[in-house]
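re: ur question from earlier - yeah i can do the single chain one, its not a big deal. heres the input i used so u can compare w yours
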Amino acid sequence: MKWGIIGTGNMGQVLLHALTSSKAVKEKDIFLYNRTFLKAYALKEDYPDVHVCQTIDAIFEECQFILLCAKPMEIVDIAYQNKDKLDESQTVISITSPISIEELTTMFHHNVARIIPSITNRANSGVTLMTFNEKLDSSKKAILIQTFKHFSTPVEIEETHVRIASDIVSCGPAFYSFMLEKMIVAANKQTGIPEDVATVLAEHMMIGLGKLFDEQIFSLPTLKEKVMVKGGITGEGMKALEHSFQNVFENVFHATHAKFDEEKEKIANHMTQFESYSK
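and the output i got, formated as tokens:
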């Protein structure tokens, strides 16, 4: 099976690395396209056996699975300019949340899926969120799940929950990085501990925390229970956190969903315009 990646920005490169380093797909079976050809071609330095295409046509001609790692508006343009180049043996996969499975099916008319990756996939870990259209036959669905199992935990997600799931899986690493940075800065300001030292402590704390969950030594509730000794220092710190964190994530999710709704409206308008131009 040959795989195409259209768009070699951050997430396109994450998927390229995850697919090849996990041995889910051989380099020689991957075809890359980017609007800036040299940006894609530069990746051959680290992935010498991949194919770099000068046109999107080559991706649609060669590949059975095509990953669209472009921005939502660009995906609409790609769809309406290339939908007639597809046949039923091919599957198109979008990695962006604002374009629904229904919209992807309308655009491409054939097998489609949405698979939302995470930066954690770069370390052959984390979750990939999957949604499939009804036309996708069971064998193609099984191939997608099995391929992504090589470097992630695939979780099939309902359309109505795609945004909140993306907030946790895809945005979550950035949110937690921000909170750790705030912890480091506050530690330096309050006690004078050098920020580089506090950074090492925080990073390795997170690595250890991940291993506790990965090895199922603790769950979230049991971990908190183990660390928070009754009447101890952690408990006092937790009281301060509970006071400070009132509605924090409610506000975060309100903001992400507002942006999501805005993007969906733009996509719907863009699709309508493109359809009118095509008539």
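The CA atoms of residues 180 and 203 lie 8 Å apart. not sure if urs matches, ping me
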